[in-house]
Design goal:
The protein is mainly alpha-helical. The protein is 68% helix and 2% strand.
Length: 173
């Protein structure tokens, strides 16, 4: 039931917002589901799975887990079932990573319809799968790393996420 005291702008902001911070376990669970769906699409060749994948990324960019089935499963079912453990990480880099996922998933979908068959889209989904596997298995978010470098190069203002800055050179040493 919707609270009658909530104004339309407040409701709009509540739905169309991205969490900050983000539970890293939830992010890794979503990446696991993305990996599973992408691999199922690659293996089966079923094109109708691609819009589901693309919708999920778009929903997470626009609303965080609010309108994303994968996001809701991760945050409302799996994380609480696991005891709500996990560390909190900055949200803006995760949103940027989801935006990259939007580009990859919609590119795969477009390539399917533009080319003869699914080969080109399988390649794009394969690249997406590699990055989803890195996040799911190792907790390495390539999109977050790109976000960090974009901040260092002045492409993204540091005021957007001051707690996001990570020195990847020091981590590699």
């Amino acid at each position: 039931m919707i609270n009658a005291n909530i104004t339309t702008p407040t409701l709009f902001k509540a739905v169309f917002s991205f969490p900050n911070p983000v539970n890293e376990i939830a992010a890794r669970l979503v990446a696991t589901m993305v990996l599973t769906l992408a691999l199922a699409t690659i293996i089966s060749g079923q094109w109708w799975l691609m819009p589901i994948l693309a919708y999920g990324f778009l929903a997470r960019v626009m609303t965080g887990p609010t309108l994303s089935p994968m996001g809701l499963l991760a945050t409302r079912v799996f994380v609480p079932w696991m005891g709500d453990r996990g560390r909190l990480v900055p949200g803006p880099p995760k949103r940027f990573a989801q935006s990259v996922g939007v580009v990859f998933s919609f590119t795969a979908l477009a390539l399917y319809f533009v080319t003869d068959g699914i080969t080109a889209s399988r390649i794009v989904l394969g690249v997406l799968s590699v990055f989803a596997a890195l996040e799911a298995g190792l907790g390495f978010c390539a999109g977050c790393m790109v976000f960090n470098y974009a901040m260092r190069w002045g492409l993204i203002p540091e005021s957007m996420c001051e707690e996001c800055r990570v020195d990847y050179e020091l981590l590699a040493a």
